[in-house]
Design a protein that fits this description.
Elements (H helix, E strand, L loop, with lengths): L1 H14 L8 E5 L5 E8 L2 E8 L5 E3 L2 E6 L8 E9 L3 E9 L2 H4 L8 E8 L6 H4 L4 E8 L3 E8 L4
Antiparallel strand pairs: 1-2, 2-8, 3-4, 3-9, 5-8, 6-7, 9-10
């Protein structure tokens, strides 16, 4: 009897909708006609699709990504002197500031991505939302990629 209970529990857990990974969210915008996806990951969101219950796939019409830099640079000061027997002595001072430091300091290497997908028939959405899904692709050229599938947001 325990084995049957354990099998039923495993089966039901496998049927439950998967929760989105940390740093990933999707929601319906107030207009009720657009899904917005936001991700914070080390890989940029490169593609997003809404897959309707009939198999129709609707690609994101807006996709953006920013960040992802890692900087260990800090401001620095350099002092130097040079000279020769006939040219005299010259001195100099250099003050350098990494660009990342001016814009808020070192980044954590994570990319903030966003996508928007227009729902083809907003009036029908409440009836089909629980059977629709989002397919997302993350990647960083030239090779590392990852695919995530998650339930589409409801009403």
């Amino acid at each position: 009897m325990r084995r049957i209970s354990a099998l039923i529990a495993v089966f039901l857990a496998g049927c439950a909708p998967a929760a989105p990974p940390p740093g990933l969210s999707a929601g319906l915008l107030p207009d009720g006609a657009t899904i917005e996806i936001r991700a914070r990951d080390r890989l940029a969101l490169t593609a997003a699709r809404l897959v309707l219950p009939d198999g129709t796939a609707v690609a994101a019409d807006r996709l953006s990504a920013s960040g992802g830099r890692v900087s260990e640079g800090r401001p620095s000061v350099g002092v130097g002197a040079s000279g020769g027997s006939s040219s005299g002595i010259g001195t100099g001072m250099v003050f350098s500031v990494p660009f990342d430091w001016l814009s808020g300091g070192p980044r954590d290497g994570l990319v903030d991505s966003a996508a928007r997908i227009a729902i083809p028939d907003p009036a029908a959405w409440p009836a089909i939302a629980d059977r629709a899904k989002l397919q997302l692709e993350f990647g960083r050229p030239p090779g590392e990629t990852r695919r995530v599938e998650m339930p589409a947001p409801g009403r």
